[in-house]
Amino acid sequence: MINPKKMSTQFEKTAVEKLLTDYAEALNSANTALIPSFYTADGLFMPDGYKGLPTEDLLGTSKGFFKNVRFQIDFTVPDTVIDGEYAFVQTMAKTTTTKLEKNQEVKQTSRDFFVLRKGKEGWKIYRYIFNNVRGK
Description:
By secondary structure, the chain is α+β, with helices and mostly antiparallel strands. It has one domain (about 5-130): Nuclear Transport Factor 2, Chain: A (Roll), CATH 3.10.450. Helices cover about 30% and strands about 50% of the residues. The protein is built from 2 helices and 6 strands. A 6-stranded mixed β-sheet has the order 2-1-6-5-4-3, with helices on one face.
């Protein structure tokens, strides 16, 4: 017999992974206008080594960032936990940042952690924090 709760959880995990795939595509295509739409109105992006950025600051900040670099990111999702209207997602990300002025490429791996919240529009990023993995 199929467990409806397990089926529902799998459906939500698939929706969460689609959100992260679409978010990566927006970042990879430097679609700065779209980036804030992945966040809740009270969302917060907390990049390694920088102050947190609320959703309302993401558009301006991302425009400045993508003006100077070409950026590629790929998320691998080893763990997702759904708890009601929240999802907790652990990812590993491989990034390549190319500084356009010098055509200098930097590859990094990071541990990323997302807290997503589900609302009327579906899953959105509530908190996103990452730290770069230094050394192996």
